[in-house]
Amino acid sequence: MSKDIKIKKGLAIRLKGEADKSLSNAPRSRTFAIRPSDFHLFTPKLVKKEGEKMLAGETLFYSKKNQAITFSSPVSGTLTKIERGPKRVITGLTIEADQKDTFKDYGVKSPETLSSQEIKDHLLASGCWPFVKQRPYDVIANPDSKPKAIFISGLATGALDADLDFVLQGKQKEVQTAITALSKLTDGLVHLTVAKDSASMLSEMDHVVLHKTNVLHPAGNVGTQINKIDPVNKGETVWTVAAQDLVIIGELFLTGKYNAERIVALAGSCVKAPKYYKTRIGSEVATMVYDSGLNHENVRVISGGVLSGDTISPKQHLGFYHNAVTVIPQGDDYEFFGWNKPVFNKISPSRALTFSWMQPNKEFELNTNTNGEHRAFVVTGNYEEVFPLDIYPLQILKACLVKDLDAMEALGMYEVAPEDFALTEFVCVSKQPHQQIIREGLDLMYKEIG
Amino acid sequence: MGLKQNLHTLKMKYKGTKMAPAFNAIHTFLYLPNETTHNGTHIKAADDLKRTMNMVIMSLVPCLLFGIFNAGYQYNVQTGDVTKALSFFSTEFWNFSNFTIGAWKVLPLVVVSYGVGLIVEFIFAVIKGHEVEEGYLVTGMLVPLIVPVDIPLWMLSIAVIFGVVIGKEVFGGTGMNILNPALTIRAFLFFAYPTWMSGDKVWVTGAVDTVGQPDAISGETILGSLAQNNGFGDWSMMDQFLGFIPGSVGETSKLLIVVGALILILSKIGSWRIILSTLVGALSMGLIFNGVVNAGWVTESSKFFGLMNVDFWQHLFIGSILFGAVYMATDPVTASQTNKGKWIYGFLIGFISIMIRVFNPAYPEGVFLAILLMNVFAPTIDHYVLEGNIKKRAKRLKLKTA
Fold first, then answer.
1. Domain ranges across chain A
2. Would you give the distance in Å from CA A255 to the centre of its chain?
3. Residues 336-375 of A with CB under 8 A from B
């Protein structure tokens, strides 16, 4: 059943400031925050009130639609601030952390002896469920659905991504425990994909079907792997879990604690000493960014990678699903005749007086400038060069823009997530926001079809 | 620093007003804007639409320069002021006299084409409040290259206005149009003023004015001559390849069109699929006609014989099939948008072009009609290509449930 994947269409974006493979402990953050916007299409219902104390791993809020799905506090502390947006939607929960974490005990359990339902209940109660996401719609998995398979990507191929082999070092037991637990949640298979020449311990896991792939981005995107291994059809569901979250799930079974510890890559050309930090979900990124120091003043801080992360300020907090913090120069400056002069210092998939094709191994220092204005779709054929899924990218984007639900469904909307369109967005000559278009398309389908 | 800062202040001042698009068009021409990404990808590739269009224009510049010299050269050859050029770098061709006569004729076409077209674009941008789009930069360059050199400027102006408004802006501007605007302009001229766009009197400057005089200038093209069953005339294969022949301003030199094609393909701007398949389509139709002639179904008495009997590969050297394949058929907005569709689209353009060329003696150049026709059918081709993908997906589902 194991299948080798060969990705020919894609783009290797090489950037300056890759994280050095050394691990430091980030200074303990004073405040932690959970942003409900990380959990797309989920409306939080609070359990704790402002000023209330809580243990690490204690339920903070649950989903309004499905009360079984709970979200836990990453630290022990006091809920100090509830931010609300328009219509009183909760946009942020800030927790002032105690000096030391005291954990709520969920009890040591062995997934081998538990039934499928017991594992599910355990994950739901402890707040580990939000780590399990589903396709279609790229949202937190519906625990009542039956997934035909579970996919785990064992490699990261995006620019400046955290190296999973490094992040998962010494966590073999946790990862195996989590995989064993997950394998009981599906009647189908657990697919794990690793790099072809990888010597990582992931290739020795039990209860999985192992696949090998080359490392051209987006081979590491779980969406690419699903499309190549077992694509989602209408009416089917697959679940996905990010490799770094397996550690948290595994630890829950082994120790009974929801330990939101995470190893994060601090990378980007503006970081003085890019390296890995051990920190927790929701901690202030300032703890890492200023510990390492910056060599630019005007910067963009991103929770996540440069292709799909969120813009934040250094005072804000690490996103729930992110294992990288990237800092790149802000590009809010004009460039004289920037549209027609030869370009040597930017990446381009074409050769229109752009010379990145002559420097395949150069690491570039890209900023956030759009390099041009937003336009209607004009150029064709360039998305296909970087889009390995068996889907017509331009046509599905247009279907989303005109809200043509039938066309979206027929063209493969059930299979995609916004991150699958990061590369097409990067190369887009018309500077269209592909990921946003896909996200809005998925939201519309979720609302209309469910 | 000074200019940059002043322009930025002006931009902020005009922001949100009616004139903002007009100002921004000039501003972004000088400076790459200071716009930054929001969420989504935080970095972007270096290419934008301006750079893409700029590449196309640069690939057209050799054709324009050659066209200027050729306009003067054709006139001077007929008046006997220069003798026939024998090699590509011959001074009989590249001289000042040819240049001044040609420039005096061709540059006004360029100025009118850009001037009128951009005014229309600016007006629409201001009315509709969108940015001035780059599409016209290429159209404005193509138009002077595909008209006869003596076309009156007022006709060109009317045609440009028609082409931009009806061909493009009514659909919503660059990226939304169904027909190639440059070809819409040419089609308008052709059907509104046929005497200025076809026949044997318009392809060399001065030919119209000297009709009936003893030293009259002949304005006939090879294609016209062939359509009359008169053979290739005085022009050798080499003349045709290098471009020392009468014809529309910029499409005579096959050598420079090949150079332009290489620029487009190597810079990954033009679709090599379309260019290649158009040529394959043209060659196939040519081969079929050659076969018909060889089989003896069409004899010399037939009015189609002249063009049918042309060796299939020679079709690429006469008329504007090569120019059409490289610069017109590859327009990404009006072509098929799927890679598979591009093969079909290009093949049919080439195929139909030669068919029209042979069967329409009144106006033997069929390329622009063939491209316009396929522009209309491009969405249909794409529809069936997509249908294939959709069927595959449906089949996958059926296999599962069965």
1. 31-97, 120-255, 370-448
2. 26
3. 336-340, 343, 346-354, 356, 366-375
